[in-house]
Amino acid sequence: MPKAVDPNAPSGLVVVDKPQGITSHDVVSRMRRLAGTRKVGHAGTLDPMATGVLLVGVNKATRLLTYLVGQDKVYEATIRLGETTSTEDAEGEILQRRYVAAVTRQALDAAVEALTGDIQQVPSAVSAIKVDGKRSYQRVRDGEEVELPARPVTIKRFEILDVRRPEGGRTMDVDVVVECTSGTYIRALARDLGEALSVGGHLTALRRTSVGGFGLDKAATLEELAERFEMLPLPEAARGLFPARELTAEEVNELGFGRRIEANATAELTAGFAPDGRLIALMNNVKDKAKPELVFETR
């Protein structure tokens, strides 16, 4: 059972290296016990099959999570060409097998290039997207046919690292690295690559290596956290995610009342810090002023 909530418990961000075989919610449950508070959440769900960077907010840092979801992400993945599955990953039932012998490296490179940049992607039907109030994956489990509309995403980098032909060449495994905007489904990318080559495809491995400015070099496993629980203090976490602005005492006071101040130097969401280093607010430019979107401290 989680410890009683300590109202004075510190706030911060924990960069977790999620293991395979558990859900993101399972990670949150464990973090509640380790942090001694129920006020814990995560940004950017990873499927049980996937591993890697999962950002977890504790106490006040949970208020950052809405803004963390939109950060760019980098993945390392393995796509198996020649097999289509019911879930578009290795956990699903194989629905169809097709020969890959005719797939050349030139054709593979061309298909990857066509899926790079600004594209329209149809999310996986087994995603957590809600359709009329019900998760799409639940509708699929209930036997419904689900067709989700395409949505714009940007694949900033789609690079082939290695190509192998296991099982006597009946299938083709392609190791890739993908840098993409929020809302991109890597299993859908695997599906679309396979269809572009007319052989089908699905995801067999997925590891998220970074979210925004936080990579695996800053991540800790659940075992490491159980031995020594540490988190990035809220100000340090914000500096790693957003452009920073040093505020005057007068600006801190104005923001504490929800008032606008002189515009930020950038159009991006900006974190404002008090002279003593405290995180005061996240701000966006609106016309010629910086408007507080989220205030953490009022004085």
Automatic annotation (TrEMBL):
Cite the entry's keywords alphabetically: Isomerase, tRNA processing
Q: What positions does the domain Pseudouridine synthase II N-terminal occupy? A: 32-186
Question: Which residue numbers delimit the tRNA pseudouridylate synthase B C-terminal domain?
Answer: 187-228
**Enzyme nomenclature, EC number:** 5.4.99.25
Give the reactions, separated by semicolons, that this protein catalyses: uridine(55) in tRNA = pseudouridine(55) in tRNA
State the source organism's domain of life. Bacteria
Task: Give one GO term, molecular function aspect.
Answer: tRNA pseudouridine(55) synthase activity
Keyword check for Cell cycle: no
Q: Name one GO biological process term.
A: mRNA pseudouridine synthesis
Q: Where is the active site?
A: 47 (nucleophile)
Q: Which family does it belong to?
A: Belongs to the pseudouridine synthase TruB family. Type 1 subfamily.
Q: What does this protein do?
A: Responsible for synthesis of pseudouridine from uracil-55 in the psi GC loop of transfer RNAs.
Q: Identify this protein by name.
A: tRNA pseudouridine synthase B
Give the species this sequence originates from: Galactobacter valiniphilus
